[in-house]
Amino acid sequence: MTVTRKTAAGCAIAALIVPLAATAAFAFAPADVTTPRRAVSLVVDPQHYTVASVAQEPVTARAAFDVYTPPAPAPVADPAPAATTAAPAAAAQSYSGEAVVAYAQTFVGVVPYGWGADPSDSFGCDGLVQYVFGHFGISLPRGADNQAALGTVISADEARAGDLVWWPGRHIGIWDGAGGIIDSPDWGRYVEHHAPWASSGPPIFIRL
Question: What is the pLDDT along the chain (208 residues), one digit of tens a residue?
Fold first, then answer.
């Protein structure tokens, strides 16, 4: 029997394929065909699906994207006007204003103007006020502004005899209660009783 090369090659390939096939059949064969198998039943509730479309979108769904406009604020009522409180009346004098004026009047035309605070020497405007009120037990410092600072500012309508008449930083005198003042005015003059100087502007009235 003559074996050709082609036949020999075919036999060799067959010899290789048969063992490989047998090995694969063994590897993937069921482990035990006699083992009973359990049947598993999966019960799934029926599912309902709704396919949405732009045409089905409710109009209210788009409202969430609208621009929010806050409501207009409620009108606020105008506050009630504050009750007008009358200014408290100036305190009464602790001395007799008429007596103060009468005592100051005794120096009119008698005591000259100067730096002093004594009738035996001279009176500056503040020296006259200090001396006169000291006679009634009211101690005052020198200096027109210092004397005014110890009292209470009052209106011209409240001023009465014995109150002070003050021009800040310049001059001070004693109000006579009838539109005039008693003061020691300037160099070369004596204590005087006269109307306030219009050129000096309105004075400030002080009650001690």
Answer: 454 555 555 555 555 554 554 554 444 445 554 555 555 555 555 555 454 444 455 544 444 445 545 566 666 666 655 555 555 667 888 899 999 999 999 999 999 999 999 999 999 999 999 999 999 999 999 999 999 999 999 999 999 999 999 999 999 999 999 999 999 999 999 999 999 877 778 999 999 9
Q: How many CB atoms lie within 10 A of CB 197?
A: 12
Q: Say which residues have a Cβ less than 8 Å from residue 161's Cβ, sequence separation at least 6.
A: 97, 98, 100, 101, 175, 176, 177, 178
| pTM of the model as a whole | 0.58
Element at 183 (helix H, strand E) = strand 181-183
